[in-house]
Design brief:
heterodimer, A: mainly alpha, Cytochrome Bc1 Complex, Chain D, domain 2, two-stranded antiparallel ribbon, two-stranded antiparallel sheet, 4 strands, 7% strand, disordered N terminus, B: two-stranded antiparallel sheet
Chain lengths: 227, 443
């Protein structure tokens, strides 16, 4: 319902949903199995699972417990895998977008209106880009914004978006059995450890999540297909 | 006062109207003021001020960015030597409505940028002292604080610089020089006090312009139904307008030149494009040759100002400033905030309705060698045109809601009778620009 509401409206209003919309959306509680006593939660790997009581309040503390339980199992099974696990930050650090001031240096082309840039252009690019990434950070850290049902958010296992490896997409993901894009993997993780509904590719929250995850890997070499 | 939006209680308005002559002061405003001598079609200033008061713009904390504007970009748009203070804004407001800044005491900024008319004059081209007509349509002064250049050819870089020009332009306010403008106010004890309080100096021309600019920075009207829609209020605009927004971003290609975002919420890219408005009635090459000769002698901003407002060379647009052939007929993309209440449209005021504007874009603009690469036939159906127009009418600030409604009905009525720019054969690529027009049966 949320997706539909914003799909057309905010389609191109990049990043302008900051602080509005998502937080006010009624939560999709119907996602839970109604009759069972417990809900099964799967990790992004589609194997590791844990169960939580059906009526567990979806608070951040409970969510963190679920995430920790899944991760300790996963780490036992992958003793050699490097997994970064810093303290989760409520105020995420975001590297600044590229400094484009260079386009203003020296003589600019004057024969093409589209190739003439101003201070305002450069500032606009910087601010709008940063705001989309900031919005992504908010969603990434907020189970409710993702309509998660068990209080788990991405940052609980991916502090500062660590271990998400956006630079390796597109790549073949065995969980999904095909070559996927970053957003496919985000959707997978939304459905699995976060227990939230999938997002439309144009959902402003999806665009923001993708932006944040990529921004956190600033400077890392692009190596699509890498495992 | 029918233009005032319904949400402003009439009682309050009445009270403000009785108060306004007091807040105004200035001797030229009273009985001997411009009302008596002909206002060049402007709404009486008392009435304009009452409407402005009811907008409640003075309630916004001056140190904060206006709603709908990125705080960092806003701060960057204010010059260091003209920080916003209540004293400067109050002085600027007074000067904006000050006919003594004109040679014959009949013209103020508010003559052509009339509050009740969305800060325009609703004329194709503006009229200054001695009823002289210029060559350009007055764009709105609303939100001008966020523009990256002023005037349609960008000849002025800032509001502070812009405000100096109309005062001494011979066909606008017509003061012989800057000193005369200062002299007109310097003897007034009230102004002496206000300038001291605002800038700590005696009356001087730089501060006249600075104060006006400070006042203009309060004229940010960005609270429209469309903004509520973006904030998640789905019913703030009609389903028709919603489809128009999708077209605006897609098939109709408006977003390319009229972008919206928090850092730039006006719907203008600040660039100069030849969208083929002036091509209808101009011989660009002849004009350009003449212009180059004249500019060789004098290319000062005052010369540019006069050529733009008083001669056919107005149609050369940006070329006059850069003398760059690719800028011939190029104009700065106009903002489309509050567009419903600021007809007629384009730099020459040649389009009466937003349907005319859409007809113009639909056929890809008027062909000419300097036409912008972003223009092409759009093949929009009549239904789609209506959708984009419906969307454009949602960009009007709530404080002009009533005037917006009135304009929509008025424009609809005009468009039903005539659509002078409509050319479906070109819009749908059935006829190329060089082929003669054939009468087509209406679909």
């Amino acid at each position: 319902m949320y997706a539909k509401r914003v799909a057309i409206g905010a389609l191109l209003w990049l990043g302008c949903q900051t602080g509005s919309g998502a937080g006010q959306t009624p939560r999709a509680r119907s996602e839970r199995a109604p009759t069972e006593e417990t809900v099964e939660v799967k990790l992004c790997d589609d194997r590791t699972t844990t169960t939580v009581p059906k009526d567990m309040p979806p608070t951040r503390e409970n969510g963190q417990r679920v995430a920790d339980s899944l991760m300790s199992q996963w780490k036992r099974e992958h003793p050699n895998q490097a997994w970064e696990m810093k303290v989760t930050q409520s105020h995420p650090t975001i590297p600044p977008p590229a400094d484009n001031r260079k386009v203003l240096e020296g003589a600019q082309r004057t024969d093409q209106t589209y190739a003439l840039f101003t201070e305002r252009d450069v500032l606009t690019w910087e601010r709008e880009t940063l705001k989309l990434v900031q919005e992504g950070a908010r969603v990434f850290h907020d189970a409710e914004a993702m309509e998660g049902t068990i209080g788990v958010s991405c940052d609980m296992c991916h502090p500062d978006a660590a271990n998400t490896h956006p630079e390796t997409y597109p790549k073949f993901q065995t969980q999904l059995g095909r070559v996927v894009l970053l957003r496919d993997m985000i959707n997978w993780c939304l459905e699995h450890p976060v227990k939230a509904p999938r997002m439309e590719p144009d959902d402003p929250r999806m665009r923001a999540l993708e932006a944040y995850i990529i921004a956190q890997r600033k400077g890392v070499t692009l190596e699509y297909g890498k495992h | 006062m029918r233009q005032v939006a319904r949400c402003w209680p009439r009682v309050l308005l009445g009270a403000l109207m009785t108060l306004s002559p007091l807040t105004l002061g200035g001797p030229a405003m009273g009985q001997g003021g411009p009302a008596a001598r002909g206002m060049h079609g402007a709404t009486p200033f008392e009435q304009q001020l009452a409407m402005l008061d009811a907008f409640g713009l003075d309630k916004r904390p001056l140190q904060q960015a206006p709603r709908g504007v990125d705080a960092v970009v806003w701060a960057a748009s204010i010059p260091a030597d003209n920080a916003l203070t209540p004293e400067r804004v109050a002085l600027g407001r007074r000067l904006f409505f000050e006919p003594r800044l004109s040679a014959d005491g009949t013209v103020a900024c508010a003559t052509c940028h009339d509050v009740t008319k969305g800060f325009t004059d609703h004329r194709p081209v503006s009229e200054g002292i001695k009823d002289q007509l210029g060559r350009r349509n007055a764009p709105t002064a609303l939100n001008a604080a966020m523009l990256t250049s002023q005037f349609l050819d960008g000849r002025s870089p800032t509001l502070e610089n812009q405000a100096r020009l109309p005062i001494i332009n011979p066909i606008e306010m017509g003061m012989p020089d800057e000193a005369s403008a200062v002299k007109a106010l310097a003897g007034d004890a009230e102004y002496q006090r206000l300038f001291q309080r605002a800038y700590g100096r005696a009356v001087n021309f730089d501060d006249i312009a600075r104060a006006i600019a400070a006042f203009e920075r309060t004229l940010m009207l960005l609270e429209s139904p469309f903004d509520r829609y973006l904030a998640g209020e789905k019913n703030a605009i009609s389903a028709e307008a919603e489809k128009g927004w999708v077209l605006y971003n897609g098939k109709a290609r408006c977003q390319t030149c009229h972008p919206f975002n928090l850092s730039n919420p006006l719907g203008s890219d600040g660039r100069f494009h030849n969208v083929g408005v002036s091509a209808r009635h101009q011989k660009f090459e002849e004009l350009a040759t003449k212009a180059l000769e004249l500019l060789e002698k004098d290319a000062s901003i005052h010369a540019l100002d006069r050529l733009a407002l008083e001669t056919d060379m107005s149609e050369l647009g940006r070329f006059m400033v850069t003398r760059n052939p690719t800028d011939i007929g190029g104009f700065r993309t106009l903002q489309i905030r509050n567009i419903g209440v600021t007809p007629p449209y384009m730099h020459d005021g040649s389009m009466q309705t937003l349907w005319d504007v859409m007809d113009h874009y639909n056929k890809g603009g008027e062909p000419n060698p300097y036409l912008d690469g972003g223009m092409e036939p759009l093949a929009l159906s009549e239904e789609e045109i209506n959708q984009v127009v419906a969307f454009l009418f949602t960009l009007t600030d709530a404080r002009y809601a009533e005037e917006n409604q009135r304009q929509m009905e008025r424009q609809q009525e005009i468009a039903r009778k005539k659509r002078p720019f409509r050319d479906e054969a070109m819009a749908f690529g059935r006829r190329l620009a060089f082929e003669p027009v054939k009468k087509e049966p209406r679909p």
